[in-house]
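Why do we care about 3D structure at all? Because function follows from shape, and shape follows, mostly, from sequence. That is the central idea of this module. The next example makes it concrete: a single protein chain, its amino acid sequence, and then its structure expressed as tokens.
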Amino acid sequence: MKHTVITGLILIGFLGCLGGCAITPHQPEMLYSIPAISYLREAPKYDSHVVTEIYAADRVKFLNQSAGWRQVELLRNKQIGWIPRDLLSENPIIAEKYYIIANGVPLSDAPRKDVVSYNILSRGEAVQKLEQKDGWWRVLVLQDKAIGWIPAEMASETRPLPAGLAGTPNLIPEKPAKAVPPGPQPQPPNHYFVAAGTLPMHILPLKDSEVVKVLALNSRVAEIARNDSGWVKIRYLETGAEGWAEARYLKTAPVTKKSEIVTERKYRKRGHSRKPAKGLEPEGM
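And the structure:
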């Protein structure tokens, strides 16, 4: 009788283990983003700050989960954040590619022809469509991960053959370059690297204004504007996010040694005031 009871208890425990295994399925380590564009957030809620944009077919590493959300590391740029579970797939996603059909296509910061562009695309370059607006596409250039806007008619699903091959029609006639008008020409933006462990980008040049994004050490940014109180408006080149940051935490070269990292304590030791100048007027966004 005693032997029968022990055997029954072992059987119950075994069945319980099977039930538990069925309730908690295996979570794959690698997942893939489904939408053309979505966001990783600092916390598992929609009103949390955006850490970075994430695109279709981006590969992420699973870290944690909470009530319909997954915390992941985006392998493309090593950023960590939360994303709704339904926007991830266990199976690899193949992003749809488009190709630039002419040489000299500007990759603009806004969907307008009057915007100066310092990034020019060439015929045959592959891009991924992120969104569209009024005849313009926002695209991700697959070669260097640059992001910007192009006219929709400048991209095709079919990759064009190199121009000049026999029997290969030009999909769009290439126009001769226009003469440069006299007068001062716009200068390319200055580029910097974040020299702090983390650097918040603010919506206004004030420490207590809303944080748009937090940049990591050695993130590359472009200068847009500057004021007289030590603040620089910058664009994060990885995603196009814009905001204000303190100029003291930016350097013209990447940080290669721990001693080169700028901290608040080091800055104050050099005799700088911790408080910003009074009467600071926010500049236009």
